[in-house]
Amino acid sequence: MRTTAVAVVMVMCGVMVHADVKPQRDFSLQRFAGRWYRVGLAYDSPKFIPFRDKLKASMGMVTPLPNGNVNLTMWDATPAGCLSKVYQYEKTNTPGQFTYFSTRHNTVKDITVVDTNYTDYALVLKNKVFNREYTQVALYGRSPTVRHNIINRFKAFALSRGFPAASILTPPPAENCPPSGSG
To answer: Is the pTM of this model over 0.70?
Structure first.
């Protein structure tokens, strides 16, 4: 019974994390396009915490498509080397909100650009339902490092959404990922 109650509370917290989040006002995909570095991450999956010390900042390239959809190419440093993956985000009726189908989890995920100034940082919320509701907040920067006040803003946002402090991190930059000349 106690396990069921804990599970219900966790699902309710996940719903509260995502329910009241609105996208960036007057979101401009053209201004958002280009190179971004994922320099902060908060994830509410219990399986995430043991891997937090192994993560490195990753780089991505946002490419708008003529139909309003987006290709996101991400490069991640892994033990097997620098790997790239392309995600295809589909536009929704709300600018700044996208969906994509995760082949890894076999489910649709919601992506919301919550806050960006387009030149320095972006806060992005990702939500999925896979056995339970999972939420992730990512801080992206136009460079591999961002100002301390932006990191504090990201951490405060994640904490305000109910993420435990142990699930919030700002990983160190990856070395040579992507390799020079890529992206």
So the answer is: yes
